[in-house]
Specification:
57% of the residues lie in helices and 0% in strands. It is mainly α. The protein is elongated, with a radius of gyration of 18 Å.
């Protein structure tokens, strides 16, 4: 890899990061908790990914 391609990669990454929406834009950095059915429906309608967290005691 030469220096020119490295700088091109850095420039592309900088533009991508600058153009990406911030996580704080929608929720001020907070995770909006949903009940499972509401979360699945919202993810399906918006096309956004969903993260499922659960715990259990054994």
């Amino acid at each position: 890899m030469n220096a020119q391609s490295l700088w091109a990669g850095v420039a592309v990454a900088a533009v991508a990061l600058a153009a990406a929406p911030s996580a704080r834009a929608d929720h001020s950095g907070k995770v909006p908790w949903r009940k499972p059915d509401a979360g699945f429906q919202e993810a399906k309608l918006s096309g956004k990914p969903i993260m499922i967290a659960f715990s259990a005691e054994w």
